[in-house]
Amino acid sequence: MARKPDTSAIELKSATLEAMRAVLRSDDSTAIATALDARLGSMPGFFSGEPVVIDCSELPADARPDLPAIRDALGRHALTAVAVQAACDAAADDARALGMAVLAAESAPRAAHAPEAVPETPAPVPEPEPEPEPVPASAPETVVTQTQRRTEIIDKPLRSGQRIYARGCDLVVLAMVSAGAEVIADGNIHIYAPLRGRALAGASGDTQARIFTTCFEAELVSIAGVYRTFEHTASGELLRRPAHVRLEDHSDKQVLTVAALATT
């Protein structure tokens, strides 16, 4: 009698993988590598160990980016390319040859850009009936709920070497960020304690993000990849005072400004 195979050595479960998205706006691997170096070169290991999905949805439909070169460029900044999305057939084959997953294009962005979708939509039948009116009234409320940004709250001190990343939301820190510690958020960062380490807001490119702290002693602050470092002796009148960090447009470039924050 044949023995039943033992399947206990492995178990398959559904899981959600959180990954960075690298949206390609050019298929020039040299330009992509240069842009990555400019954005992340001054902060080695900024996203150390993070998986990355290479998103080709903004490239021409037949574009075939040099995926090995792009993967290597990401790898130099400790980012691991694990999948390719919205790629043409040739690029998808290249991705599979590199051991990457191939993801289909998201339907929502495609539908939003399709001009034919507008004339075809006016077919909602409930015109003669007054009862369906509550349905459109509730729809906007659902959208607002879905787009509300949650907030990550940290209430313990961060020691040197610790890093917190609030993905897709704001970060509120209620305790000290020690020298050598790092707080990162895709949104705003609020620190109601001394900031002695590094704070990086707008990590996914949000130039409107800001950093607030009640005691400014930062080693480095950054918004949307624009960095500024500080020496304690050079912080001048802002040292140990409430401060506010934001990006401002000056002629042809964006400048990171740190100003006193009025608390009374």
What are the SSEs and their pairings?
Layout: E1 20-23, H1 29-40, E2 50-55, H2 67-75, E3 79-85, H3 89-97, E4 101-103, H4 107-113, H5 117-120, H6 134-147, E5 151-154, E6 163-166, E7 170-173, E8 182-185, E9 189-195, E10 198-201, E11 211-216, E12 220-223, E13 226-229, E14 243-250, E15 253-260
Parallel strand pairs: 1-2, 2-3, 3-4, 5-7, 6-8, 7-9, 8-10, 9-11, 10-12
Antiparallel strand pairs: 11-14, 12-13, 14-15
Helix pairs in contact: 1-2
Counted by DSSP, the helix tally is 6
Question: What separation lies between the terminal Cα atoms?
Answer: 83 Å
Give the DSSP E fraction (strand runs of 2 or more residues): 25-35%
Main pleated sheet: 6 strands, mixed
Q: Write down the overall geometry.
A: globular
Radius of gyration, in angstroms, nearest whole number: 23 Å
| Residue-averaged pLDDT | 79
Q: How helix-rich are the residues, as a percent range?
A: 10-25%
- Supply the helix-strand structural class: alpha/beta
Neighbour order of strands in the largest sheet:
5-7-9-11-14-15
The ordered string of helix (H) and strand (E) elements is EHEHEHEHHHEEEEEEEEEEE
What report would you give on this structure?
About 12% of the residues have low confidence. It is globular and about 80 Å long. The chain has a six-stranded mixed β-sheet, with no helix packed on it. Strands 6-8-10-12-13 form a five-stranded mixed β-sheet, with no helix packed on it. A four-stranded parallel β-sheet has the order 1-2-3-4. It is of the alpha/beta class. Helix 1 packs parallel to helix 2. The protein is built from six helices and 15 strands. Helix 3 links the parallel strand 3 and strand 4.
